Amino acid sequence: MSIRVSGPGLKSVDSHAAIHEAALNEAKELNHILGRLLKDNQKEKALETAYIAVEHWETRTLRHAEAEENGLYKEMIEENPDLKDEIVALTRDHDTMRYLVKEIKHSLEMDGFDEEVLQQFHALVHVDMYHNLEEERILPHH
């Protein structure tokens, strides 16, 4: 599979924000469903949904992050070297999200779905929300 390096959607502030918002809203909805399933003690359904949520993070957010790192971020630094520290911070956010997804997958394989995993999914949303705010603050200067 090839990843588009930096298409017009990544460079347009409005469409880039829309990509973030859609993925984040889906993640929040999955967290809401997971919370209900946990509360209702539907362990098997919760585990199945947790794997769907992991797939969501991998295919929507982390794949998008990889495209940003391979294209948009490099272009931004080339055009404005003063953004290097901010781009490093944005990339670190991506690394934090990758780490959390890896930890969630490990927990699901070892212990199944529980309250701790739900908290990790909530942490992912918060890291992503902050990341998106920072990225959209920097992007207009691009």
From TrEMBL:
Residues annotated as domain Hemerythrin-like: 20-139
Matching InterPro entries: Hemerythrin-like
One Pfam family cited in the UniProt record for this chain: Hemerythrin
Protein name per its UniProtKB record: Hemerythrin HHE cation binding domain-containing protein
